Amino acid sequence: MNDIVRILKEKGFKVTPQRIAVYNVLMNTKEHPTVEAIYNKLQPMYPTMSLATVYKSLEVFRELNLVQELNVGEDKFRYDANVKQHPHIMCIDCGRVDDVDDEMFFNLKDEVASKTGYELVGQKLYFYGRCPSCKRK
Amino acid sequence: MNDIVRILKEKGFKVTPQRIAVYNVLMNTKEHPTVEAIYNKLQPMYPTMSLATVYKSLEVFRELNLVQELNVGEDKFRYDANVKQHPHIMCIDCGRVDDVDDEMFFNLKDEVASKTGYELVGQKLYFYGRCPSCKRK
DNA sequence: TATGATATGGATAATAATTATTAATTAATA
DNA sequence: TATTAATTAATAATTATTATCCATATCATA
How far is the CA of B7 from the C1' of C13 (A)? Predict the structure, then answer.
């Protein structure tokens, strides 16, 4: 059985076609889509699904830690089915958002904790630049 | 003469009491205030100043690179008169936002560039945790 | 110092993303 | 299958931000 189905059941949430559809969009992309983008991608297959349902599905997934929310500085959120906190990089020309391998950030948390006196629980690391394809132009 | 006055003049912007007031709030705080917070702080001294004026002043300052905009993941921006890109840390309990010394991030950009193939131009680094005072409770 | 061109401030309306509400529908389970 | 509780979808409400409009303040120039 699909993971998402099992987890929803375990946590007492209902398994609906809409939720599965929203989650599958996120599972099958590397594009870190916005709510709008997810909605648009689902339109052809689920023409009756409303934007509010996309929002609510994402809210449930976030609660269950099945997706993470990104804010790269736009006035809206993007979503990622990869819930491991990892850095992202955005192209300032074309707007695409990519993952950044995070092995180089291993000891960052400890260093920040000792510098600031905070007890660290998380981090959001965003980089900005020109992607390989935009660089060429 | 005040720096802000000189720069506004040089760039052909008019020097108004409102602009100076907004800038001074930012100069004299380490709190990374929101627009609302700036507005509230100015109310006693400038009771006729409107929220729109705060927004517009900040827009000018951002254009002139006199302030930087932060988005720590709230649904609003915070502002900092320190325009050098540096990491921030937010307390998940009380909401305060502090600076993080950035010497430890020196070679980060180069590493990210070589990993991703992007040409790096900037970064936003946010950490989350419990501040020393909230930790004690 | 006075004048006049023009950018700015302040009030308010508009916008856009998100959240709340609600009635009708649907799924889970006895 | 009936009951119950959760969910959907449509819509309204909310909230941060941006745009508009015009009286007014600023400042170069006379």
Answer: 33
